[in-house]
Structures are given as structure tokens and as C-alpha cells.
User: What shape does this take?
Amino acid sequence: MKKIHHLFDTLPKPLKNKYIVTIIIFIIWILFIDTYDIMSQLNMNRQVQQLQGQKEYYQKEIFKDSTALHKLTNDKKEQERFAREKFLMKKKDEDIFIIRKN
Assistant: This one.
């Protein structure tokens, strides 16, 4: 008991105040021990930024694909161009030469 009393007497005066000790323990708990500590918050924030970037990319791709789909469904020339490029279709009197680059 004397050792504990001696230890308590050697503490600085602010650490003897139970409110200050409670606040310090609370801050340590929130910053390092809690489930949503500082590191977890930073990691989640980074993931949110990455996901927002992916969201923007996919929205642009959806817009580009929807405009291409609209053109394909409404324009005969676009349908012909698409069929020639993607499926190598041709007219009866045409020859197709495929040139591949290495």
C-alpha cells in the first residue's frame, strides 16, 4: 500500500485529477483502440475516393455505350459500319483484306 501511495505522490499534479485522466483515456481509446480509429478512417476515406473514381469512369462508359447503342438502333449507315468492322461483313461484290500489325 505504501508503494502505491508513493507512486501516486510522485505523479504530476494534472495526472492526479480524475477528470483529466478520464479525458486522456477517452482520447487514447478513440484514436487508437476503437473499431473506427484514425487508421481505419483514413483507409476507408481512401477507398471512398477510389470508388468515386471508378464510379465516374463507369458513368462515362455507360454514356458512351448508350450513345453508340442509340446510333446503332436508329442509323442504317452506322449499323453497316459496325457490321463491317466487328463482324467483317461485306457486300457481294467486295473483297476484304485484313492487315494486322505486329
Observations:
- The mean pLDDT is 88.
- Residues 1-34 form one domain.
